[in-house]
Protein: Choline dehydrogenase, mitochondrial
Amino acid sequence: MHLSSYPVLGLLLPIACVATLYERAEELPASTSYDFVIVGAGAGGTVLANRLSENPGTTVLLLEAGPSNLGVTDAIIPMLPQGLAVTTYDWNYTTTPQPGFAGRSIGYPRGRLLGGSTSTNTMAYTRASNEEWDRYARLTGDEGWSWKNMQKYMLMNEKFVASADGHNTTGQYNASYHSTTGMVSISLPGYPHPFDSRIIETTKELSEDWPFNLDMNSGYMLGIGWPQQSIDTSARSSGATAYLAAEYMSRPNLHVLVNAHVTRILQTGTDSGKPAFRSVEYTTADVPTGGTSTAARTVVNATKEVILAAGAIGTAQILLLSGIGPEKELSALGIKTILNNPSVGANLTDHPLLSNLFYVNSNETYDSITMNGTLEAEDIAIWNATQQGPLVNSPLAHLGWARVPNNPYGPDTTAGPTTPHYEILFSNGFLSTTTPLPSSGHFMTIVTALTSPAARGSVTLNTSNPFDQPNINPNMLGTDYDMFLMESAVTAVMKIAAADAWKDYIIKPFEDLAAATTPDALKSYIQTKAATIFHPVGTAAMSPKGASWGVTHPDGLVKHTAGLRIIDASILPVIPSAHPQAAIYFLGERGAALVKEAHGC
Structure:
């Protein structure tokens, strides 16, 4: 699906936030210190900024490298996130060549605006399985990360709201697992898809493999169900719209600075023999990727903590630029090593994705919009006028989760017997980042994504220039096990497509999928067409206190340092078998509670 950008007309946006939203360093009040300086305004950083500034006596500065989210059409209308890639709202990363992708490098979008990737993603909201959170508790030695103990933070984050069309959602989710008083608005699809009834019929016909799951956020994920998405009835709900809403941005003790590219954190001394990092260096100069800047850099100090929340790529890069990482690699780039830690930047993990495309017998797919600019403009006008129509949905229609019954490749990578190996996502149209959009036709996409891959990659520095991209190697499909899982997932999709429920709807597979009729052809199809669902985690992983490996303690404090904490996707030791947006919000909620407890604020 490739939708273009149109202005949002008549949409009333909160403007009160300008009271403490700054665009240049010199606009900030004269003070150069805050209690807390937070780097990155994504799912983790926005939560921290909100919760830590609840106490009017606590001062907080939130730094975001990108611009504001206000008025950004494609970050507001749920159907339009693809229009944000390769723009000023995207870091525009590219991976290293991936052997599992037949040597291809791929674009690696990450959100670069208030809200981070919560302002650019496809809004899937999945908590992960109860086994997943219990595994985090075991791996870190901290029961606070268990499913049971994380429940309160899940409910603090979630505010379940009505769908755009106001339909009766009975039988589409279990309200007893949810909150209506949290921060991020969550809803079910607000516009029907032409195959909704066929999905439900599939869960009956193929009930052994694909049972209906009333609520995949109950802790049990297996099966197919209705997607819960971060949509406030008709518009995206993000870390920016929820945690940085006008009522919070008006707090005099919370300052938010956009266009602030953090270049490194600085050692400010030692505490109990450990290097302390309570200063942040940044610039608001407009420096292109790979460029250099002679503009003065600003230093801001934290009296209590610097908290990195720049994501699995950004946080790792900042640590390395600051002299925290593998000494051999840093020395080769002329960076003085302050803390030698080989775990920094290691363990990068992501979910490989493959768009399996089918021709369908329907004229009600989103292809009518994506292939016709006039119709697209009409639907945007409908959304502007009524907050209704097909654009109130995200590109995702239904989600399914499954396990591979027989694994010939050794230890299971999932958290337990009810945690999925892979996911399928149904989309009402042509949805692909690796195959060009045809000029005509109607399509359905069944995406397959590995949710528990075995492969691990890394983030390393290319140069010591903070404006250069780092080397991003997610090592997609980098093991035989991962390829086996993806092959199994595609085979499962073909079984779904052959079910009676789809007999008069699916016409045939699209070209590349249609040709994948032998094991070698299937492997080639996967290697040449797979991409990623853009869920990087793990580059500053938590480990138990006292462990010789890992980057942070279970509370996010960086090992062998003082005054430095990380609360974002980078601290997850294992990638969740779920879309990680919700998990990062939960990290932020518990992380904020831990910070408050540590400092009595």
Remarks:
- Confidence is low (pLDDT under 50) at residues 1-19.
- Residues 581-599 form the longest helix (19 residues).
- DSSP finds 14 helices and 26 strands in the chain.
